[in-house]
Amino acid sequence: MPPLDSLFLQDFLAAIFLFFITRYFVRSLVRKRKRKLPPGPKGWPVVGALPLLGSMPHVTLAQLAKKYGPVMYLKMGTCNMVVASTPDAARAFLKTLDLNFSNRPPNAGATHLAYNSQDMVFADYGPRWKLLRKLSNLHMLGGKALEDWSQIRALELGHMVRVMYESSQKREAVVVPEMLTYAMANMIGQVILGRRVFETKGSESNEFKDMVVELMTSAGIFNIGDFIPSIAWMDLQGIEGKMMKLHKRWDALLTKMMEEHAETAHNRKGKPDFLDILMDNTGNPDGEELSLVNVKALLLNLFTAGTDTSSSIIEWALAEMMKNPEVLKKAHEEMDEVVGRNRMLEESDIPKLTYLRAICKETFRKHPSTPLNLPRVSIQACEVNGYYIPKDTRLSVNIWAIGRDPDVWENPMDFNPERFLSGKNAKIEPRGNDFELIPFGAGRRICAGARMGIVLVEYILGTLVHSFDWMVPPETGELNMDEAFGLALQKAVPLSALLRRRLEPSAYVS
Length: 510
Description:
By secondary structure, this protein is α+β, with helices and mostly antiparallel strands. The chain has 17 helices and 11 strands.
């Protein structure tokens, strides 16, 4: 029989062992209870939910959200991702936790297209980003800056309308996105470079349009290498190779623009354009300094996002009106009453055109230019709706799903501008404060060009609707309204239209 103190020692050690084991499991249970991840699909081993997304991720994620809820978690390769699909969920991330989600995750698009995140779109939130944003707002994208280049918008829009008028006289169909890209690139070129980018519409401007679309499409693809970094070198989808080739084309174009701009500096003494102002900040010893790479990267942002997102919204709006002639008729009636038919529409007319502005809002709702907001990433762990969100979790806000949510919008598949004319929706604006309608995102990383985008869409769309009747060419048959996914939501089939003049002939040449 073992001595009493030996038995006591055995019992004591066993008790200690049980105590620590019990405490470990209790803490684990508490930790798991406290760190409950949002619901979501299980996905596959290694690749996670990546194969579930398909070719239209915004649609798939909207369907999954109906099953798993407004805050949904997906394991994407080795990365965590959370998706917000309702206004309240978007508000929680983009307003309440805005600062925690103020950075972008690393990705191939930022590396290979945006000069390794040296631009304004993908740069980390910090001094360099703030300087790029400040300069852009002060001299191009802010309210005062937009007023300063209003004459440029009118001039370039006049050029485009006259080209369209000539096509209408010849009964030739116009390819709408080509016309819009040509006009917008020249508007932006005049502000940035002090000159038009394209003197005539032709192969050069069409190539530019193709480059813009390719960039926005490739940057929007869910790249396997972004979510499983250890195999990124394999480039399984061939995306990164294409990005590198496209980057060389863009870099050559931007280098040429900057060299030609430097050669004409003597012509702009006392009248600096935006590129002059940027170059003045490349050797600033008293504060944050920009590099030439930062300048190129910012120009890339402005020329691509500035042309593609606005032009896609205008194209969708025109297509919806061609499919819904009663909407086009009401817009014409309002414009005839406010503007008449003896002159072109002017920007100062826009505040009086409430139905036109409702059409723009309805297009922002149903066809947001960015269906999934640009991804953000959590700086530290946080909690949303009682769910644990780990550090370094990628965030996507499904703006497309919010705009088509039947719990938010009555008959969301209908194109009905009247929904914005009265009732609770009348005060909703697409400027980032009303989370039912956030086509430009929200919070501190809201699209820097949101104000410019709204101005361009309202003015250009209003002018095109006021100036012409819009008809589907007989050979087209039923209008194709399919989407093509990318960073910007394109029409799968570019819109072609037959035009018929509505104004006095003298209005088109003034």
